[in-house]
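Table 4 source record.
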Amino acid sequence: MKSPIYTLSGAHLARAAAAAVAGGVVMGAIWSFVLLPFTFGFLSIFLGAALGYGFTRAMEYATGRKRGPVVVAFAIGGIVLAWAMLPLFVPMRVALYGLVAVGIGAYLAYVNLR
């Protein structure tokens, strides 16, 4: 028997998907316009931590504090979507610096939601 904390219903999956897409779009827009200076160098660590924290909380709220690989995948997908929005507003060479933040955010989301 599976633990109820790892069992997701269709409604939980739909809410997790909606939270990943909405969070990715919103956080990507904020990252593009307001936090652009934080995409460079050492400060990317803090941006990655903020992305990981934000998506962890969004997934917890959307799924009723469920955990597991599916929830982790939605959180990481939202973080990647936020990064994928950067080239829409900034040059691609600038957006590549954001990969450090994506990696850190994905790791923190994984650690918190596994």
